[in-house]
Amino acid sequence: MYNVYIDSGTSNTRAYLVKKFELIDTEAINVGTKDSAIAGNNNVLLTAMKECYDKLLLNNKLQEIDIVDIWSSGMVTNTFGITEVEHISIPITGQKLLDKIYLHNEEKIFRRELKLICGAKTAQPGDIIDIENVERMNNVRGEEIEVVGMVATKILPRDKKCVMISPGSHTHMCYVKDGAIIDIASNFTGELNYAIVKSTILGGELSEKDIKMNCEYVNKGYQYLKQYGICRALYIVHGTKVFNVCSDDVRSQIMAGIITGSVVDLLGVKISEDWKDVEKIIIIGSKLYVESYRILCEEIIPDVSVEVVYGYEGKSFALCGFLEILRLRNQT
């Protein structure tokens, strides 16, 4: 018998067919909760998820009855996901995610029960969040399962205090201690870059490719950010086009330094004030721009070792986390 696991984010959705603990097949589509938010309802996301699911069944000559359970994580528990589900309070482990699985009867598209893996939040039960303390609150949807996968594969060693950085539409930093998420710091990054590219004059002045990062240009963007603030720094990027100073590729690297720099600055503050015992920073991601995080971590936080990882034995860390949850369930 088979399980299907669907990992859906802000911009992309990936579906995995699993038999016991073995990956059999995958499908992906460039649709996420961003598209549902724009449409004003979640039909576009559910339809995309079902399309991936149907392809997995068709390509592997399976029927609905062959699938024991459909699991999903990420932004599916957001308002514009499958259904809104409250985050689980930190600390977070794989066992806690399993214990808090949310069962949802999806009647519109799948017409069957879905097992939803909840996100994580720093707020504790009973906390009252208002304008005076909201800046201290953070949450993730998707990164919690990635951390479980990274702990299970020993990429995040249980005997070390680490920070996991997951660059994306929203870049989250998870402080991990003894194999559990202890704290979170969240940032608005990829969507900011997308908005700049799609809705400003800079869109025609930046590279459309995922380009290799150069220390000199990434650091230059960070210097502009520190000296002038983000609004002026972005205009300087535009100025390099006006005065024909550099290529689109170089401008994109400067832009990466500006956006990434604000995240790494925050990390530096967290390590100096709250996460003082951090021994290692691990950055995950397969795109070239992720290197901008390594470059600036080494520049801003030189006393902590930094590593970039892209997955484990060809699997995403979200999938590794799901497989760990299956193993934990099998033990009970």
From TrEMBL:
One of its GO terms (molecular function) is 2-dehydro-3-deoxygalactonokinase activity. It holds the Pfam family DGOK. GO terms for biological process: D-galactonate catabolic process. InterPro entries: DGOK (IPR007729), DGOK_C (IPR042257), DGOK_N (IPR042258). This is 2-dehydro-3-deoxygalactonokinase. The lineage of its organism: Bacteria, Bacillati, Bacillota, Clostridia, Eubacteriales.
